[in-house]
Amino acid sequence: DDRYFVYFDEADFCYRAAQAGLRLFYTPAVLLLHKVSSLTGGDESPFTIRHMVRNRVYFIRKHARAFLKPYCLAFCQIRYWMRLILRQDTKAVFQLRQKAFAEGLRMQLTATDPTL
Questions:
Q1: Contact (CB, 8 A) for 109 and 115
Q2: Who contacts 1 (Cβ-Cβ below 8 Å, separation ≥6)?
Q3: Model pTM score
Q4: Among 14, 51, 66, 96, which is most exposed with the fewest C-beta within 10 angstroms?
Q5: How many CA atoms lie within 13 A of 40 on its CB side?
Q6: Within a 10 A sphere around the Cβ of 101, how many other Cβ atoms?
Q7: In Å, what is the CA distance from 115 to each residue of 34, 75, 104?
Q8: pLDDT of the chain, 116 residues: tens digit per residue
């Protein structure tokens, strides 16, 4: 699903593969070297925050069971508020998370999405 662009695309792929009946395997002996966040500016960059929040919301909307969606989305909001209250995020970062959350809510689900 190219609507993800980055972050959660692998989770979406694995989820859809499992739903299609494909078996997924974990191979602990494989070593993969990955320079984390080298192109995105790090875990706390505006780019990373925006896409992680937006895509998390989109993934929940796309794949969570209908009765769980409000709880999952509320949990995300509680987490973002707690980060602000505990001063783990600045007000600007909190506002970025809220903007990205709204963006994730607005992302178009298509007729091929299993939740429609």
A1: yes
A2: 9, 12, 13, 62
A3: 0.85
A4: 66
A5: 18
A6: 19
A7: 33, 20, 15
A8: 889 988 899 999 999 999 999 998 889 999 888 776 667 777 789 999 999 999 999 999 999 999 999 999 999 999 999 999 999 999 999 999 999 999 999 999 976 665 54
